[in-house]
Amino acid sequence: LTTPATRRVTILGSTGSVGCSTVDLIAREPERFPVEALTAQSNVTLLAEQALSLKARLAVIGDEALLPELRQRLAGSGIEAAAGVEAIVEAADRPADLVMAAIVGAAGLEPTLAAVRRGAIVALANKESLVCAGPLVMREAALHGATILPVDSEHNAIFQVFDFDAPETVDRVILTASGGPFRTLSLGDMRDVTPAQAIAHPVWSMGAKISVDSATLMNKGLELIEASFLFSVPEAKIEVLIHPQSVIHSMVSYVDGSVLAQLGTPDMRTPIAVALAWPGRMPTPAARLDLAAIAKLTFEVPDFARFPALNLTRQALQSGGSAPTILNAANEVAVDAFLNGRIGFLDITRIVEQTLSRVPSGPLGELAAVHEADGAARRYAAHLIDPTDDDRVVRVQTRGRNR
Ligand code: NAD
Ligand code: MG
Fold this sequence. Notes:
single chain; 403 residues; alpha/beta; Rossmann fold; Rna Polymerase Sigma Factor, Chain: A; 18 helices; 11 strands; binds magnesium ion
């Protein structure tokens, strides 16, 4: 296998943190990476700017009210403009060689599936689509010959050191975690943290949702589920190790005692480049790793009492079926409520735990089953957040369905 001279790219969620890093890289080699489509939810200014500078063929805005503005900003450029949930799925369906799936949340599932069903190379940042529908996404990828390249830095690291020819020789997968902004905070002090404090990640600069997930360690839990589906490794063989410097992005240990790791500075452009240039490599402006300057790498066992999210995700993975779907949906609702000042930080994991224990899970065959479990969990979590606010329940429910 060699990397083709040119690779046509579509970016789903181009205005987000991963999306912008992807744009940054392909803007450096525009001949090598012509752009088919870019999509965003509401940042119409940035979307239009990106589409113009990359000469995309199509720009799609999720919020339909913004279509006139998108059209106006693209006027005379020859770039097609479209809007709405369906248009985003259609963008994923257009003939790009590689689709960067960088939408946040379960909202990314259907566009990602569209790219998978087209047999595309899918650079997958959107971990929630694997968490809420892992068996479905992996099955469809195998069926349609799609290649899924993990962009999440841990999974990208594992991907680089995993022996896919002899998976039986893998002893353990070791996911490293920075520990987030509250690694050393007591439970009592965590109770009063604000969204601004939760979003201020010590190492990585990321979107709001994943930053909060990193603070609760739910992100690592979601990544555990993600790793299990991506690499077909059972939950019991996946370890989580706190490594505050985030230099080792993850490791795979083998039956002979060898441990292979991928290292680098914390810059998402490295794993994104691995996917864009796969199976080759491409240069990036990411800072070079200076181990002598860092001098010390440290490791800790995670504290499950202060960060119960890790055990909840193990439990969901063991239960199987739609349990991870339920966990993911409840977490999305709870994180959104926390970011909007409606609940406290510790309520996030509590709501996930209660939703997971009360909403019955079932088998996860088709997309309809995913929607059903996702919707039920969103309704239940919204009800836990505010039992009196029926309007809110309906709104969250609609959002869950309107993907
Ligand atoms: P972000 O919030 O910065 O960006 C999200 C993007 O998705 C934006 O372009 C936004 O317009 C779009 N979007 C949001 N809601 C949408 C909806 N309902 N429908 C369609 N589009 C929508 O998020 P991010 O930090 O870039 O993360 C994106 C994904 O990548 C997440 O799943 C996250 O877990 C994963 N990820 C991110 C990082 C990182 O460093 N940021 C690292 C690893 C994995
Ligand atoms: Mg990660």
